[in-house]
Structure formats: structure tokens, C-alpha cells
Amino acid sequence: MRRVALSISDLTVKIGGKEILKRINIEIPERRILAVMGPSGSGKSTLLRAINRLLDLVPGCEVSGRVRIYDTEVYSSDPYKVRRLTGMVFQVPNPFPNMSIYDNVAVGPKMNGLVKDKRELDDLVRWALERAMLWDEVKDRLKDPPNKLSGGQQQRLCLARALALRPKLLLLDEPTANVDPINASKIEEALRGLVESHDITVVFVTHTPYQAVRISDYVAFLYMGELIEFGLTQEIALNPKHELTMRFLKGEA
Ligand SMILES: Nc1ncnc2c1ncn2[C@@H]1O[C@H](COP(=O)(O)OP(=O)(O)OP(=O)(O)O)[C@@H](O)[C@H]1O
What we know:
Blueprint: E1 4-15, E2 18-29, E3 33-37, H1 44-51, E4 61-69, E5 72-73, H2 79-85, E6 86-89, H3 101-111, H4 118-131, H5 135-138, H6 151-163, E7 169-173, H7 181-197, E8 201-205, H8 209-215, E9 218-223, E10 226-232, H9 233-238, H10 243-249
The site of adenosine-5'-triphosphate has 12 residues, from helix 1.
């Protein structure tokens, strides 16, 4: 029996008094992938940032309702604990420019005391780079700076950096929007591998219906801050209930 990894109930987000997300309800079991879709400005990034409390950093932002990650009530827990449960990858690859490839992945576990010695750290760095499908390409140049990598490799490095903190929930905001198709398919393969073989649940934003259908188990469609459709990807792809979802899936919206 799979546990519920992420439960969002009646989540409403206002910024500067304007409702950006309206009473969102979503629940997904562990080790599943949720694709969040919807037109530009519909609130997809805001939803991701509500899950890991990055919205705390936005002035004038009010959040009501509940977000729970396993047993952790996100809005009544220490934000530090919430960030430890979640990892995030952004649309534009943002490796730490002044650190080596190795250190980009190692710095988080070192600062958070996740490893007891150098050997454990080396193992964790390798594990994360392997899971991000990058190890073979960088194993002989771990001391290089990240700007020697292609954009797609840098994005996989950011994925490895997030994974090295062993998150339970991985949040990705259009992770393949700025990478070529080969890198995009490596990232997709990495995400499927993570939920199938590791104890990780994934929520990612995408504008690409094919990508959502290829790799997600669940989809959530947002429109002007409302969740207009949510459910199993296969069911929604075959039988979307909402006209807008249908158009979106056909690439018309
Ligand atoms: N920090 C902020 N201050 C004011 N308004 C904001 C802020 N962040 C988001 N918004 C507004 O919230 C709405 C939703 O934005 P959000 O970035 O979540 O949409 P999105 O669906 O991710 O869009 P896109 O696909 O273009 O990235 C938009 O109207 C946006 O202008």
C-alpha cells in the first residue's frame, strides 16, 4: 500500500491581495509523478513554491489551506525541515559557478551533516550524479567548473545537487524548457528511474503535453489559479472532461 506523499487541501494563495491560487485540492501517492500544466500565468510556479514554502520569501503573500508532505504539515513546521524534505530544480540551470562539479553536489550534504566522512560523501556524490544520468559524462572531470558543461548537463547537475540532499519530494519547474531533446529525454528517464527505484515522489511543471503523457502518473491542469482538472494521466489523456484541458493536450491552448 502506497502512502500519500503530497496532500494539498483548499490551498489559496494571494499576492498583494490578488488571488493567484484558488482552493486547490490535490493528493498523490508516494513514488508517483505529477505533471502540472496550464497556460502561462495560471499559477503553476506559484503552486510549486507553495509546496516548499519558497513563497515565504515573497512580500505581500498570504497562504491559507493545508499542504502536507507525508506526516509533515508544511505550514505549521519549521521551514528548514520542509526544505529538507523537498528538492527543487528551476527552469534555468543555476549551478554554483564558483564551485567544481563535485562540490556543487557535495556542498549540501556536507553543510547538512548527512555524511560522516569523505568516502561516504564520494559515494553520495556518485549516487546523485548517477541518478541524474550524468556520472559517465563527468566522472573524469569532477574538479572542472560547471560552465564547462553544456546547458543540459548543467541542468542534470542541478538535479544531482537536489538529489544529494535525499529529498522525499522533488519539485521541478519546467526542467527541460531550456535543454535540447537528448538532454530532455535523459532528464525524463532520470525522473522515471527515481520514482521506480528510489523513495522519491516528483512534481514537475511542463508546457509539453507529450512529456506529461510520457512520464507522469497524474496530471493537474490549472487555469487562472483554479484546478480545472486533476487525475490519472492515462484517464485524462483519453477522456479529458474540460474543454480547455482537451485543447491544451492537443497543443491548441
Ligand atoms: N512575486 C509575485 N508578485 C506578484 N505577482 C506574482 C508573483 N509571482 C507570481 N505572480 C502572479 O501570479 C500569477 C501566476 O504566476 P505563476 O508564475 O505561478 O504562473 P505560471 O503558470 O507558472 O506561468 P508561466 O507558465 O508563464 O511560468 C501571475 O499572474 C503572476 O503575475
